[in-house]
Amino acid sequence: MSTAAVRGAVEVYLDLLSQPCRALHILLNCAKIPHKVRTVALRKGENRSPHFTKLNPMQKVPVMVDNGFILTESVAILKYLATKYDVPEHWYPRQPEKRARVDEYTAWHHSNTRPHSAKVFILEVLLPTQSGSPVDSMRLTRALSELDDTLDKLETMFLRRQPFLCGDDITVADLLAVCELMQPLGGDRDVLHNHPPLQRWRTRVQSAVGDAFNQAHAVLYAIRDRRKAKL
Fold first, then answer.
1. Handedness of CA 166, 172, 175, 176 (dihedral sign)
2. Which of 16, 72, 130, 221 is the most exposed place for a label (fewest CB within 10 A)?
3. CA distances from 221 to 13, 105, 183, 225 (A)
4. What is the CATH number of the domain that holds 100?
5. H helices within 5-57, ranges in order?
6. What is the DSSP-derived secondary structure letter of residue 32?
7. 1 in any annotated domain
8. DSSP code of 6?
């Protein structure tokens, strides 16, 4: 529930074309944490402004400011908010074994789901848009193969036969994963089309977060629709 008028609200600096920003946006709205969104348009270089660079010298989004406390990494921000604020415990469980499952996935995420999903989007959408050159089909084929291997592991190591990645309830791990796996949709590519268990998982995630899902992904849908209109 974004509210720019609430005193003491958490400030978040976001660009919703960024996958981790979308995960954070969904949590804030689902958990009804009072917050103010400060949009940082990466395509306009606003992340390199002096003000933003002072907040995060790495010049990356998201960034959170909570009563002067600045935090710059998406996973840390999600866990901080779920720990500090009165949110349903399922987002980041207190019980040690359940929490460890979320930590296990988020540690794996940065070397697997995130880079492999992002690479497909970069090769199919971002680089051709920026350079005007055609898609490098050989590199894209390799990237899709790497992603498919990651999706297999995601199914067998984490999802298995349970409804969500870390158990019976949705957690911040599901938000991080689903936002990455949605990213190639900007090129009208559904990377889960050969993975029915992950398709069903995505549907459960969408159902669990409701309208917050499509609100966070509106920018990505717009990119997809513009590309389709040009074809």
1. negative
2. 130
3. 21, 27, 10, 6
4. 1.20.1050.10
5. 19-30, 50-55
6. T
7. no
8. S
Residue 1 pLDDT: 40
Whether 2 is covered by a domain: the verdict is: no
Amino acid at 146: E
227 with 187: CB under 8 angstroms? yes
Neighbouring residues of 129: CB distance < 8 A, sequence distance ≥ 6: none
78 and 124 in a common domain: no
Is-above-0.85 flag for pTM?
yes
Query: Residue 207 belongs to what domain range?
Result: 96-230
Count up the domains in the chain and report the number.
2
Is residue 16 within 8 A of residue 219, CB to CB? The reply is: yes
Residue in 77, 70, 28, 74 with CA at minimum distance from that of residue 51: 70
Residues 189-206 pLDDT 10s: 999 999 999 999 999 999
Task: List the CATH number of the domain containing 72.
Answer: 3.40.30.10
